[in-house]
Amino acid sequence: MSTVEKTFYIETFGCQMNAHDSEKVVGTLVHEGYNQVATPEQANYIFYNTCSIRDKAEQKVYNKLQHFKNSGKGKVIGLLGCVAQQEGSKIFDRAPHVSLVAGSASYAKLPEMLVQIESGNRRVTGLDFDNPEAFDTPYTRRDNPFRTFLTIIEGCDKACAYCVVPFTRGPERSRTSESVMEEARRLADSGITELTLLGQNVNSYRDPSPVGWDFATILNEVGRIPGIRRVRFTTSHPRDFVKPIIDAIDSNPNLCDHVHLPVQSGSTQVLDGMRRLYTREQYMERIGWMKAAKRDIAITTDIIVGFPGETERDFEDTLDLLEDVQYDAIFAFKYSQRPNTSALAMGDHIPEEEKTRRIMLLNERQRAIQIRRHSQLIGSLEEVHVEGRHESLNQWMGKTSQHRTLNFTGRDAEALAGAYVPVRVTRAGPNSLVGEAVV
Ligand code: 5AD
Ligand code: SF4
User: Fold this and answer.
1) C-beta 161 within 6 A of ligand 1
2) Which of 202, 304, 352 to mutate to test the pocket of ligand 1 (most atoms within 8 A of CB)?
3) Domain count along the chain
4) Do 406 and 323 belong to one domain?
5) Last residue in a domain, options 67, 91, 126
6) For the whole prediction, is pTM greater than 0.85?
7) 3-state class of 230 per DSSP?
8) Which of 9, 266, 298, 314 is buried most deeply by CB count within 10 Å?
9) Would strands 7-12 and 45-50 be described as parallel, antiparallel, or unpaired?
10) pLDDT tens track for 77-121
11) CATH number reported for the structural domain that contains residue 50 in this entry
12) Phi-psi category of 394—alpha, beta or left, where left has phi over 0 and alpha has psi -120 to 50?
């Protein structure tokens, strides 16, 4: 195939790990001489980097594939990511026009797999977890010049009863601290000032080299790199969330004062059924560390409603947890049965309407909490890392260290994207703040 024909289109579903994996895939393919294009029609290779966290996410992919059943003739269609890993070569039966099925642990071999396809093999798979390290490539194509992701650990060794991730992303593999630090320094040199350390369970990071850094150490060290002004991390598991992480945030102002700590349920009984490995009390102990910190740490969480066996009383425990913690944001989901997971055996007996009632009530309660918390910020001074501009509103938009969206006016003429601007908060809504730049 000539270079002209090596055009590819990629669309990404799911979480930040997937978004970042796509950046690595793009970087790798561009390095191999493929050209990225903006629409599937222009492309010879069409890739979907898929998510299977809930059934809805998975169905989106099949809808996309359906579309290319006829119009995809002459094109190579590749399924990447979590649905690919979960379904494997079964995809070829369901969608015979797909030629490549590859999970995230095999992306390093992507160029090789494409060569196989180019030489006539129409059924290529990459489904092994034999890559001992995280997918580590010098060719990542990062879209944002100021803030970006940095993978420190891949996979997950937990076995939450509802979760497909251990099956789609395999066992935990940590990168060496040397490789992480080297990439972080390179990013800082290129003008990046904000980094998000990524992993399905970042807290269980353990440097495989003799240095043996734990998560709190690498967090602190990345936050000390000259040029890096903000470090975030996601996602945390409460069981592996230890006090030294809070001590690090307290002692290093470059570590953002925000922790995303998914709780999933406020009922110890449901947590037990979910195999989360902590009780409500143990979770609250961690919240206590954050509340006792010197800095005001914003706390966000994920919650599942309608897990098998969740009674009205259990659900009330979750509602009550919102009041106890006073979260800054929550992401609530209706329970969805997933293949391979241990909760499958428990059935899915809570009716859809009841799940809807619970999720609406939960979001309503949380909205009231956010309105209250945000209104307390009126008058305060926040530092905003500017992301872009709402031209029609004549407003700049960015994030505070606590990961709140703050839209502001007062600085019109200059190019501000990437700058850190002090902003006085003047108004507050449930999901964002409005302010005026302090000149
Ligand atoms: N059903 C509903 N929500 C789920 N999540 C993970 N698995 C499921 C499932 N089977 C939610 C959890 C997790 C977030 C990323 O997605 O809350 O933290
Ligand atoms: Fe979706 Fe989970 Fe895979 Fe991320 S890791 S893409 S959330 S299934």
Assistant:
1) no
2) 304
3) 3
4) no
5) 126
6) yes
7) strand
8) 266
9) parallel
10) 999 999 999 999 999 999 999 999 999 999 989 999 999 999 999
11) 3.40.50.12160
12) left
Span from the CA of 53 to the centroid of ligand 1 (angstroms): 6
Of the bound ligands, which one is closest to the alpha carbon of residue 264? 1
Residue 346 located in a structural domain: yes
pLDDT over 90 at 265, yes or no = yes
* Rg for the chain, CA atoms, rounded: 23
CB count in 10 Å sphere of residue 176: 18
d(CA 52, CA 60): 10
Residue 262 belongs to a domain: yes
Cross-strand bridge partners of residue 45:
8, 76
**In this structure, are residues 254 and 225 in contact, taking their beta carbons and an 8 Å threshold?**
no
Note down the domain range covering 408. Answer: 381-437
Reading the block at residue 253, the tokens are: 């102002």
Domain assignment present for 131: no
Residues 249 and 194 in one domain: yes
CA–CA separation, 231 vs 372, rounded Å?
Answer: 27
